[in-house]
Amino acid sequence: RVSGAERCDATELDYDTRNQPASSEREWQQVRQCAHQSNDAAVLMMLYANGDGVAPNLNLATKYACSIESPAAEMKGRLAHLRRKAAGSGGAVDLCDDVTGGERLGMCAALRERQRDKQRGAQVAAATRHWSEKEQLGFDIASKALRYFAQSRYEHETDLGGNTRRTLQVDAMAAELDQFVNDLADFESGKVPRFSDAEYQSLDARLQQTYRQCMAAAPAAASYLGTIRKTGVEKTQRAWLAYRDAMELFGAMKYPAAPASGWKALVTSR
Fold first, then answer.
1. How far apart are CA 14 and CA 211, in angstroms?
2. Positive or negative CA dihedral for 10, 15, 20, 23?
């Protein structure tokens, strides 16, 4: 039983359990107990609609669906989904399938990113399991620098003016993390960056010119920058510079035969 003194997030627990290769009856029982403890009607709706750890009960699922505070269009879509499920054609019921509001869209984006980050972790673990301690150290330095840069993009380089702001933030951060994992797969298959020093110097000069122009210009009233401020761009640029240097160090430690200029040039080109 989940103790009342313990804090649990039924939504995260549900998605974690559902996305495992296999889940036990006991794990689903913990999800259900947490959902009851926290009065999470959305999770209880999914459990009874999909029969996860309980006998399917679409009437009970509908009762819980009607307890979810939602815009009218969202509620209509969710109930229609449950009716299709009752008719045998609706597929699994997921709270995120029918959300319409910006806040819930952001929550669902964060839930998807949580699962995707676990996948990234598994991919990285598989790729690096035979590396030496030195190589692992270089990777850890680059990985931590990347996450700091990605978090800065999330916080400081995403326009927060619209109702999908959290989704945009999550997507901005995820794009950097996905790119890093894709890069690692390329490096391990022999596709290391092979830019010359002259190419790197040219790329860096273009980057510095673009940055100076950005910091000197006064954004137009209709600028896409929205809530983004120059101070945020500067903070993110500093985080990126640390990431670029960390990538160069990682490359030297793990792939010493590759040109040293290639690592900085790769991230600068982006």
1. 44
2. positive
Residue written as token pair 């959902």: 35
Q: Name which of 268, 212, 215, 211 is nearest 245 in CA terms.
A: 268
Residues sharing a CB contact under 8 Å with residue 69, sequence separation 6 or more, in sequence order: none
The three-class DSSP label of residue 40 is coil
Q: What is the 3-state secondary structure (H, E, C) of the chain?
A: CCCCCCCCCHHHHHHHHHCCCCCCHHHHHHHHHHHHHCCCHHHHHHHHHHCCCCCCCHHHHHHHHCCCCCCHHHHHHHHHHHHHHHCCCCCCCCHHHCCCCHHHHHHHHHHHHHHHHHHHHHHHHHHHCCCCHHHHHHHHHHHHHHHHHHHHHHHHCCCCCCCCHHHHHHHHHHHHHHHHHHHHHHHHCCCCCCCCHHHHHHHHHHHHHHHHHHHHCCCCCCCCCCCCCHHHHHHHHHHHHHHHHHHHHHHHHHCCCCCHHHHHHHHHHC
Q: Is the pLDDT of residue 3 over 60?
A: no
Nearest to 93 by CA among 14, 183, 208: 14
Cα dihedral 246, 252, 257, 261, rounded to 10, equals: 50
- Non-local (6+) Cβ contacts of 17 within 8 A are 23, 27, 28, 30, 31, 52
The pTM (predicted TM-score) of the whole model is 0.86
Q: Looking at this protein, which amino acid is placed at residue 130?
A: H
pLDDT of residue 5: 42
Amino acid found at 225: L
Tens digit of each residue's pLDDT (9 = 90 or more) over 27-59? 999 999 999 999 999 999 999 999 999 999 999
